[in-house]
Amino acid sequence: MNEQNEQPLDDILADPLADPADEIAALQAERDEFRDKFMRALADAENSRKRADKDRREAEQYGGSRLARDLLPVHDALTRALDAAGDEQRAAAAALIEGVELTLRELSNVFARHGITVITPKPGDRFDPSEHEAMFEAAVPGTNRGEIIQVMDNGFRLHDRLLRPAKVGVSSTPAG
After folding, report:
1. Domain range spanning residue 56?
2. How does it associate, per the subunit comment (predicted)?
């Protein structure tokens, strides 16, 4: 046997052992530290899972918002075309008007299927900056300050997010 590498049994037994209570306390502290790290890792993994789930839901709901925004002018143009058609044009081009109406109805159905709703303010409604964009202010007799007096364009909402505010004119007539 090589005496340099092996410690005699008498030397090992003669070495006083550390206090068992100190060893237990050290092991308990190490256990508690590992438990804390484990619990933090679990919480971090759970937070990551929840964040990924939220991101996935938002992507499903709002992922098409750019396409939806690009289709809003199409809705506006079809609506304006129908509004501009008078009785004479309706009689002369009944099939054309019906085709435009059907196209607008189908576009509206697609919007509804994907959670897009039209914000349609009316004159006399209260101006709401979270849904409306004031294009001008004018003093109009018989109205109160902050009432909508004219609607230029409807607004649109995708689920609970505003895609485009309704463009309106607002009364500046002071109360009195």
Report:
1. 17-61
2. Homodimer.
